[in-house]
Amino acid sequence: MDITIPSSRPPETFHVVRVWQLDSLDELSILRTSLHQELTGRPLAPDGAMAEVSEKIVLVASELATNALRHGRPPTTVQLLTDGEEYIVDVIDQDTSRAPVVAAPRLPGDGGFGLVLAQRLALDVGWFVAEGKHVWARLGAARDAASPAVPAAAAP
């Protein structure tokens, strides 16, 4: 059974660092490379290796953007925000009629793990409607694996 993620807004203390506009799945690699450079000040290594925090942020941004491009309505906008200690990835699409849902457990390779990954890697995940549907995740260097964004009972 699919589970709807809670509707909530992120903290208001964050400010926008960078914005990307995506029109297709083909642009995800550009997003990942550009986001990594924004976070680290360095180009993405040829082997794709990244620091742990930037790796989590890039992965969550890529998964949320993929969901928006596949299931939402264009245009898709990705925003990186910070308060100086933590980051928020905010992905916006124009399909305000459907809430994002965490897919029911399924076999590896069947897809549907984007929000599951976001919930496991982020400090908090939520969504709201305001000039589009915003799905956001808050991440930071002080990530405590013992306190996931989703209670263990709700995770697949």
From TrEMBL:
CDD domains per UniProt: HATPase_RsbW-like
GO molecular function, one term: protein serine/threonine kinase activity
Recorded superkingdom: Bacteria
Domain named Histidine kinase/HSP90-like ATPase: residues: 48-138
Keywords noted in UniProt: Kinase, Serine/threonine-protein kinase, Transferase
InterPro entries for the chain: Anti-sigma-factor_SerPK, HATPase_C_sf, HATPase_dom
Keyword Ligase on entry: no
Protein name: Histidine kinase/HSP90-like ATPase domain-containing protein
Source organism of the structure: Oerskovia enterophila
